[in-house]
Specification:
Order of helices and strands: EHEHEHEHEEHEHEHH
Structural class: alpha/beta
CATH superfamily: Aldolase class I
Helix content: 25-40%
Number of strands: 8
CATH architecture: Alpha-Beta Barrel
CATH topology: TIM Barrel
Distance between the termini: 15 Å
Radius of gyration: 16 Å
CATH class: Alpha Beta
Strand order of the largest sheet: 1-8-7-6-5-4-3-2
């Protein structure tokens, strides 16, 4: 079943533990954590100490999205800090196959991320080893951007390839996800829907997550 994955990039960092508990009460199982280095993307966010700190306040699965220049070097540090799964950018990896295997050997699941302008064909030869594929539906770096519709075509093609090749990777999307497009995204074949601003900038984040999860559940059986 498709699930909503709140992104703490849009949370109030002065009350981060409280913000996490609020969405946790909505019944989520996964939390999305964006890591930006100010080089691969312009923005600069959090590092391993913050991951280690929030690991102490929740048992949720940590889905770390590394928007950094050298994921091969830094992924093990984030795994040690508490990451359960690591998403790395195809555009940032010199030896993608090696980095995927390294992360998995360290005990974490590994996904590969594609920016909006990167063709999904670049992943043809690693789809049999990845745990998930994350499609960026905005240009990475900042929250609150508008959803890029072509992302749906990428999801549909990935879902078709997954079925044709009998593979097991999950399909994730990040950027501009809100209650107005949840059903369309799920029907396209998406499993994990990352939502930041739509959740944490709402009046009641827990209620928003429940509403979006209900919409995702209803759409799960109507894949297109």
């Amino acid at each position: 079943m498709a699930q909503i994955v709140p992104s703490i990039l849009s949370a109030d960092f002065a009350r981060l533990a409280e913000e996490i508990k609020r969405v946790e009460q909505a019944g989520i199982s996964m939390l999305h954590v964006d890591v930006m280095d100010g080089h691969f993307v312009d923005n600069l966010t959090l590092g391993p100490p913050v991951v280690e700190s929030i690991r102490k306040v929740t048992n949720l699965t940590f889905d770390l999205h590394l928007m950094i220049e050298d994921p091969h070097k830094y992924a093990p540090i984030f795994i040690e800090a508490g990451a359960d799964q690591i998403s790395i950018h195809q555009e940032a990896c010199r030896h993608l196959d090696a980095t995927i295997h390294m992360i998995q050997d360290k005990g974490a699941k590994c996904g590969v991320v594609l920016n909006p302008a990167t063709p999904i064909e670049t992943l043809t030869d690693v789809l049999d080893i990845v745990d998930h594929v994350l499609i960026m539906s905005v240009n990475p770096g900042f929250g609150g951007q508008k959803f890029i519709p072509n992302s749906l075509n990428k999801i549909r093609r990935l879902a078709r390839w997954r079925e044709e090749r009998r593979l097991q990777f999950a399909i994730e999307i990040d950027g501009g996800v809100d209650k107005h497009n949840v059903e369309t995204i799920v029907r396209a074949g998406c499993d994990w829907l990352v939502a930041g601003s739509a959740v944490f900038h709402s009046a009641d984040p827990a209620a928003t997550v429940k509403e979006m999860q209900h919409l995702a559940s209803e759409a799960t059986a109507i894949r297109v």
